[in-house]
Each structure stands twice: as C-alpha cells, then as structure tokens.
Amino acid sequence: MPTARLGITKTPPRMQLGDLTITLLDGGGLSLDGGAMFGIIPKPLWSRLVAVDEGNRIPLATTCLLVETAGKRVLVETGTGVASKFDEKERGFFNLNEHWILPSLNAIGLDRESIDLVVLTHLHFDHAGGGTMPDGKGGFEPTFPRAKYIVQRGEWDDAVSGHAVMTGTYRKENLAPLEAAGVLSFIENGDADILPGIRARLLPGHTRHQQGIFIEGGGRRAFLPADLMPTAAHAGLRYNMAYDLLPYENMVNKQHVLEQAAAENWMLLLGQDPTNAAWTVKDQGKGRFALQTADVT
To answer: Which of 278, 297, 289 is nearest to 238 (CA)?
Structure first.
C-alpha cells in the first residue's frame, strides 16, 4: 500500500520495532523543479523515474515520523507548515496543498500538547515549517509548546545567517519563534543519542550540518537520511540536487549509507518520496543499488 502523501487519516501506516512504534504521518505536499531536484542528471534520464508536470515540477511528500518509546512521543520532521504561512505566489510556485502536520496528528487523537520532542534533520522550510504556526496575533509560535526542538548547532547557525543556495529556504517565521520561546536543544555538531533507540548521525552534503536519524528496536533498524536521498529516484550516487551545498560529500555519504543499509538490512525511510516512505536496499556492486518497497505492517 502507498505510505506517503496520505492526507488526513485515522489509520496511518505503523511499524513496530520491538517496544518502539513508528507512525508515518503526512506533513503536507509540494512540488519542486525537476531539474533542480536532480542537478547534473539530464532530464531524459531523471524523467524516466518520476512524474513531471507542465511546469517541469515533480511531486514530493513531507512524511513525518511519530516515534513512541519510553513513554515519550517524538516527532521527526514537521513538513511544510500551514499554507497561510506562504503568499499566493509561493503557494502556486511550490504547488502547496492545504494539509499540514497538525491535522494528521489530530486525526489519530493527538493534540499539539502531546509531543515531547521534535527532531529536525535540517531547517529548510519543507522540513521545519510545521514546527511553528500562527499565534492569532499576527505572529508565530511553536506548534508544539511542550516539546524541545532538537537540531545540530551548526545547522542552526547556518540557518539564522542565511547560508543557503535557495533563497528563502531558511524562513524567519520557522526559526525566530523557537528561539524566543526557549525550546531549542542543540547537538554540538556530531552524532548523538537522543533517546534509547533514537540516534542522530551527522550527514553533511545537502547542508553542511544535516543529520540523519536512526530508529532501532527489536533487532531492527530504520534510518531517515533526509535530503541526502529524498526519494527512491535519488538512489543513484550522482542523482543529487542542485540545492546541495556540498555535492561531492553528499555522494560519498550516500554511498556509505546505501552500502551499510544493504549489508545490515536497514529499512530506509525516504521522507519526500511521493508514493512510498519505506524501502529496503540491495547492493548490486560497482556503486549501483536497487531499492524495493518495504512491508511496514
């Protein structure tokens, strides 16, 4: 069954890893330029792998992971955020839909007070946008007021200084309210345990301080590589984005992740694939890897 871009549903896909539960939630959909999403790869090659519209855009999901473990609820990624954050031109350019993470949580009986931790792989708007919301007074506030928001220190520093190749991807309304509310918790630029069974791994490439997230339990391991490899169509080592700050590092780190995932039977959770979020990997040798959809039941 499809596991991405589900919209509001009372029965989202769930995975059980020992005592740990992962629920796949829809954080909103968007579209981005296909050429930018595949960098140096010519359109005749990348367009075989993905749908492309008349504006040369490809559809993307923003799958968010609700991880429940040790009596805590952890939200990994927050999607694009409510559509009212964007002006009419932006909504049209990015083909944004009205859906965002809070209605997905509400549909399974959780409110904004239910989340204990928010983990962000990086702070681009399609990953961090759902972390803040309008406060009803003309400003913005943290969507999850009880939660600590966890991010790499270097990623935060780059975000507030605008260190990016895509203008406006680090948006003030997604950042300033978190700092003002005192909800930020920084990882000091490296790998770190977040909770038992949840671990961050530094993955420079797309940004200088992006992090991937391991989720482990019951002898099984899932890994969210974030924009190291946003969709299954990006499994080719050179199929990287023009948005990547460090394209060579991204390619090298991707190879290491895919080799480990194949050798150790990880499940890869590709948060922006528009059809499926969960995949397994087979190493075909000579730097080639085959991805197959994984059973999440």
So the answer is: 289
Q: How many angstroms separate the CA atoms of 3 and 276, rounded?
A: 5
The β-bridge partners of 17 are 20
| Domains, the chain, with CATH or none | 14-293 (3.60.15.10)
Predicted confidence at residue 189, as pLDDT, reads 86
Closest to 133 in 3D by CA, of 210, 28, 226: 28
Which residue from 34, 9, 31, 27 is spatially nearest to 242, judged by alpha carbons? 34
The answer to whether residue 1 scores a pLDDT higher than 70 is no
47-56: per-residue pLDDT in tens?
Answer: 999 999 999 9
The model's pTM: 0.97
Separation between Cα atoms, residue 68 and residue 139, nearest integer Å: 31
Residue 167: pLDDT over 80: no
Angle between helices 153-161 and 172-181 (to 10 degrees): 130
For 110, other C-beta atoms within 10 Å of its C-beta total 17
Cα 176 to Cα 172: distance, rounded to the nearest angstrom = 6
Distance of CA 53 to the CA centre of its chain: 23
Report whether 72 contacts 195 (CB < 8 A): yes
With residues binned 3-state (H G I as helix, E B as strand, rest as coil), the percentages for the chain, rounded to 5, are 25, 30, 45
Using an 8 Å Cβ cutoff, are 149 and 83 in contact?
Answer: no
